[in-house]
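Lab meeting, action items carried over

1. Structure of the two-component assembly. Owner: GW. Status: complete.
Input record:
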Amino acid sequence: MRNLAFVLLAVTACTWSDDRPLMWDRDRDVLGPIQLKNKVAYVDSALDRVTMIDLATDDTKITTSHIGRRAIHAMASADRHQLYVVTRGEEKIQKGMIDQPPLFWSISADNPDADPVAYEIDSPFDRLAISPDNSTAIAYFSAAGPDAAGFFRNPNELAIIDLTRPPGDDNPTLKTIRSFGSVPEGVTLSPPMAVTGSDQRTFAFILSENNLTVLDVSHPERREISIRLDLGGPPVTPKEVVFAKTTASAYVRSDGARDVLQVLLQPATPATADGNDFAPVLAELGAGGGPTDIAVYDDASGKRYVLAATPNTGEVVVIDADTAQFRSVPVADPIDRILLFPTGDEDNPPPPDKALFASVAAKTKRVEVLDLTHITDPLTQASVRTITLENPVRDMVAVPGRDLAMLVHDDARTVLGLLDMNTESTSPLLGVGQLDTYDFSPDGSHLIGATPNVSRVGFVALDNLHPTSFRLDDPPVKVVSTTNGKIFVDHGDPLGRATIIPSTDATRDDAKVLSGFLTVSLLDQEP
Amino acid sequence: MRASLALLALAVLYPAVAHAGDNAVSIGSFSRALRSNSANAISSDDLAGVHLTIERDVGHDLGIDLFPKLQLWATATWEYGTVDGSMFQTITTEGTTHILTLGGRARYALRPWVAVSARLDAGVQHTGLQLDEGGMTAQDHAWGSVATSAVGAELIAVDHIGLRFEMGYLAASGVALAPVADKDSNMLQLSTAQASIGHLDLSGRFVTVSLLGAF
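Predicted assembly:
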């Protein structure tokens, strides 16, 4: 009997129950694919890791980096060398949870062995603005905020992160800006601009209804400067900021405003020891009719001009940014999209000689071309040529590095046109499916498009508009072209599945499918 | 579960034709507690299944007589187990194992109707893993090695028919898996590089309950 009791006791002892680590039951949200230089990144909010797929060589490499709990937002730097992620953090409520504050992560795409750098931002910001030179980041709240967690949320709080310094007590700097009742709808960081001497700094332009806030992020401890936009009239919402770094100025287009606002940052004597050493000088550049789109360019002599479309007055206005003198060119259509040609190098664009206008909201069947070469010469007649199209224009995009514009003619994005700016002629393209995702090859030689209904990637050679396609094994969700010309087609598989096409003229023998990369080494991961 | 019931029914019927002697057959079910990190990833449940063991009293064959009432048996076991679960509340998982082992059992009869035993086995395990989400299915399987140690007790009822209770530990090598999506085999597929999901380790303590028949 004692033996039987021993057996029963042993059986009972064997039926113990351990808790499964909580991480395997967490909500999972995969952010990506995020296009980097020669890599593609995904951020997994359940596994708390970044997965990078290196496409630099034929031998595709997968690397992972661990980040904080619950990623909520991710974006690449403008040069695509860095990946930035905001993690929500966690409260230690149940076993397996940890106390972790919201963190901002900077991850190098060039050095996979480098540990991600975490900056403690204290609030769960869900939007990021990154300066063009990767020196500064600002984390802020979207209008809705990340979630309903917490008790109070300050929508006007910002975390200013100096990415050139390691995290510390003074980095990031948390700051609440004056709001006048509105909340930030966007933050734009300037390129380095010299206001006083050769002291290059970055300025943040914070856009909120009726209010534009300028902040010297190189000195975040200094007070911000608020610029009221409405002056008691109808609401004015800043929408777009374009910078002229050589003159330390910004041009702001706002919904509800009559003119383009020029904000010229000039040296000023600080009123106090920690006061600002600059002051914004404002000028309304005489668009006069509520600009719907603006473009800024330098002509061959380096003189800066602002091109503004003002449908209310039926004009396009070319404004000398230095003198605010302007020239109006009548255009009957309600223009709301401006593209400049040639596009050239993004960082160092050539002086444009043509502007292309479209009326996207009005869905007109026309686009207009304006010669810019002698547009400021009052003795020269402005030359606006109308190009009549078969279908209305729903979207218009410049092809990088080419004198071509892609016109989208229907909401389903099945009917496209390519406008050659040299010959000012259009060529229609018909798609089998709608162009849900597209990219251009880095040299601008091909348009690459796909739709989830069709297991193909379509290519259009932009030299001769010859269309080809590549049969896929699975329906595509997103296409991404890397800087080395490879095409990465994501299939939306939760385990990770992508087709890697080496080039636009590759055959199926050259391509390969990479599968399971989102769960790579998942079973070897410690909870 | 249906297979388990069928095998149990077979076990109940089998002793009717069994005779007392140097051979034994046991059949039953087991539950293995999976507590490795990798096993926790695929399920919070224990692995459950059935086993079939055939045994031969080799001590008698070889004339080994260490102690009175101590018998040495050679064993061969087949085991099938399965476990279901989920990851991240969206990916459903299914792990399966087939195990083939050879080993030995030392059996000591305390009373004519009670015996205790200890066994050591070693063999191979075929581990399968299937993942499903949103209609997408991926699966893989691989062979690994296993070793088992267990102690047990036998209650003999009538005519060499009895029940065996065992508890022990199964040590399994982690097998590298790379689940591949099910595809239409009629289509020519692009060459695929499959990333490994890691090593699945289904080691764990177990308990078994078996019907035993000697003949």
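2. GW to write a short summary for the group page. Key points so far: Chain A touches chain B through 46 residues (CB under 8 Å). Chain A is about 0% helix and 45% strand.
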